[in-house]
Structure formats: C-alpha cells, structure tokens
Amino acid sequence: MGSSEGLTEWVRRAARGETSAYSELYRRSRPMVARLVAGFAPLDPDEVEDVIQETFVRAFRALPRLKEAGAFEAWLLSIARNRARTRLERKASTRRLEDDVADPEPETVPHIPEALQLERDIEVVRRLIAELPEGEEKRTVQLFYIEGELSAREIAEKLGVGKSAVTMRLERFRSRIKRELLRRVLAGRWE
Amino acid sequence: MKHLDADAMSALSRREPAAVAYFREHLAAPCDTCEAFLATHSGPDLLDGQVDSLLLGVGPTAQKAEDAPLDEVGLARVRRGMKGNRPDIRRWGLVAGAIAASLLAVVVVPRMRAEDPAVQAGTEWDGVKGPAGTIALELAVVARSADGALRRLDPQSAVAESDVLLLRYHATEAGTALLFQQRAGQGPELLGRFPLEAGTHDLEGPQGLAGVSLEGESGPVTLWLVGSAGGQEPSPDAVREVLVGGSAARERSRLAVTRFDVSVRSGQNRR
Q1: Is B249 exposed, middle or buried (0-12, 13-18, 19+ CB in 10 A)?
Q2: How high is the ipTM of this complex?
Q3: What's the CATH code, domain B72-265?
C-alpha cells in the first residue's frame, strides 16, 4: 500500500535533511515495524528490538536516495521483514553471518499510487480470514491480525503450541494474501 | 504447468507480457507450490511490504500508529546506529560487563544532587502517593581497552576512541536512571533507560549490561546518569532541560544527577 500523504510529506522533509522529520517518521512507523517483527515468534524481545533498530538505521541511512517518497511504508516494511528473516535464519544456523537478505534498492522502488482501494483490500483480507476453516490456524490469524494485541510469542503461550508453529501459520496465511495481491497487480490493479 | 520460481519472478519484475498473462490466470486459484515459493522469496518489487502493510491495516496497529508516543530510547539507539558501524552497546556490555563486575572497585564521583524533599513541592513529578521518594546516586567508570584490559578511571581521564566505558552505580534505593552522553557544544543525547536497585550494581538494562562505545568520538565527552526514585520517572525531555539548565536547575529538581567527564583521544594517540 502507498504511504499516507501525511507520512509522505515527512519522508520528503527527512530527505531534505530535517532532523525532526526523522523523529516523526520513527514515531509514526515504529508501531507497524514492531508489529511486523512481533510475528516472528522465535525472536526474543531483545532480538526484536535489535531488528527494529537495524531496520530504521538502514532505512534512514538510505532514505535520501529513496526514489518514491510514497513508497516509504512498503519499502520500510520490506526492510523489516528482511532483517527479521535474516536474524531468524542466522539463529537457526541456516544462514551464514556474511550472507544477508538483500533489501530493496531505494533508487529503484516503483511508484505506488495512493491507497485508494485500501478499504476494499482490507475487506478482501477480512473475507479470506473469515473463510478459513475453523481451527488453530484461523484462531492464530485472528489473534495476530484482527485483534492485533498479542505477539506471536504470546499467542504460542496462549494456544499452548510451539513458537515456530505460530509463525508458520501466520506465514502460510500471508503467502495466500501475497498470491492474491500479486494476481491483482498482474491484472493491472496498480498499473 | 509452470509455477513461480526465480526466473518467473524476474520476468514478472520486467513485466514481460507472456509471464504476466500466464500468472495472472494461474494465480487466480490457490496453488500450494506458488504460495510456498512466495513465502520464502521476496518480491517482485515491494510486494512484500505492500502485503504486510495491508495485513497490519486489518487490525488496530495502523490506527494506533498515528497517536503513538515517541520511543525516545529506541530513537536514540537508531541515531547512534546511524553514526557508523558502531558495535552494539548491548553486545559490548555483555562481553565486557561481566569482567567489570568482578574487578571494579567503586570509584565514587562527586554526587551533584541528593535532593531535599522540602525543595520539591510543586514540581512536575508531584502527585505520587505518599511522601516523595528520594534517591542518592554515585557513579563509577571503568574503561575496557581494545585488548580487553580494564582500568579504573578518574574524572577527566583521557581515554582512547577504541575504549568502551563500563558503568557501575551505587543507589540508596530502587528507581530508574536515564543515561545521557554529551559532547562539547552539543546537547545531552539519551543513551538508554535503566532500572536502579538499591546498593552497588553494574548498570544493566533489559538488554544487558551497559557499555558505552566511544568509537567516532573525539574531545570532551560527558556521561550523565540521572536517577529518580520509583514511581517518579521523568521524561527524557524534562531531564534534558535540567541538565542544560545548569546547577540551579539541578538544585531545583528532585533528580539525582551524576556526571563523569572524559577526554577522548582519537587514533593511535592513547593516554
């Protein structure tokens, strides 16, 4: 989704070097980044904080080169996901220290139109959640995305399942949404 | 039947008509193979960020973000991270702090403020139930050099840019401390918030023992450790005002303010 006009203006001001704009971007964006990273249950609270910090350090360093200010939120969340995945894979020893999930290059991010259809998109997601068969996956998705209060770690405790299981359920559902969105992009939804 | 793979994603990124036409139809129905690929691979373009933005928009997070308070401690960590490839404070602390705990003899630095409750009436932290708590705070500092050696510092000591400063405090009661760093001619910069326990302890937060890296610093540097009794936590901005307000402001506040000054020599020119 494209960033809101308010956020986009702060991105422009930060790119011009206004220090206070970085504070405002951090204030407005941190909850979204923190919520995204909270979906990676195997990361402990310290690791979550590290991922959040690394995300903003990388994003703020590269921000003056960001081609499309309106793409800031999607770009930032892409970085956060990459940082969390890298941390998770290193923790599981499936990725070497020198390897890294590459972040989207700020110079080449595409233009993302204003989120005119955001409400409709959100309704699509709600419908897909409602259509999930009753069970643990649906409950997990509802707790994390709809209610939006508990971290994946806390959901694992609440449901009495392993931390990785919760993250796998969330990622499985997310991949369905990603397929649906990709189809819409290919159908000219954002062209 | 063709499924998503690296080549297909590359073709989609280039908007190749044949690939777009095929996958537009193919992805209209659930496909476990393609969804598994999408779950483990980024893109195309910013699709991952757009998906997460959409999903997070379903719950209350996006609405809350508009009115979210500024996490000053987190922002301070980001600012420090932006200054270069500095070692993470927490990791330095974890490596060095445990050594400090066993070797550090407490060096008491002059305590600048042990507040007089009689002076505090009407200040902005009133409203705590019961009598106002007071706290006295003392600070000791040890430098850990690049080769791992530890040395006790006196105030105004010269230190190397490669040194990490380890802090130990003595508090008369439990509370909270804010740690600031200040360079010559600049305002105090928040480094972190730490719980205080009564007695003598290494400075330790939720993220581990604290160590202050001096990499990238040069010249006079002041560390401020500002303590407040439990339940009277001031905001970082309020503390900053006290610190830049000079001794008069510190006398008026109910904070316990300690400072430690060092002079950082850059490069090989050490001590």
Answers
A1: middle
A2: 0.89
A3: 2.60.40.2550
A57 touches chain B (CB under 8 A): yes
Q: How far is A147 from chain B (nearest CA, A)?
A: 6
B75/A187 CB distance under 8 A: no
Q: What is the pLDDT of residues A34-47, one digit of tens each?
A: 999 999 999 988 89
Q: Which of B51, B85, B88 to probe by mutation at the A interface, max A CB count within 10 Å?
A: B51
Is A191 a member of any domain? no
pLDDT in tens, B186-218: 888 888 888 888 888 888 766 566 778 887 788
Q: CB of A146 within 8 Å of any CB in chain B? A: yes
In a domain, A113, yes or no: no
Distance from CA of B166 to the nearest CA of A (A): 20
Tell me if A109 sits within 8 A of A67, measured CB to CB. yes
Report the residue from B30, B70, B74 with minimal CB separation from A53: B74
Which tokens hold the place of A85?
Answer: 């995945």
Q: What's the number of domains chain A is made of?
A: 2
Dihedral angle over CA of A95, A100, A102, A103, nearest 10 = 110
Residue with tokens 């927490």: B90
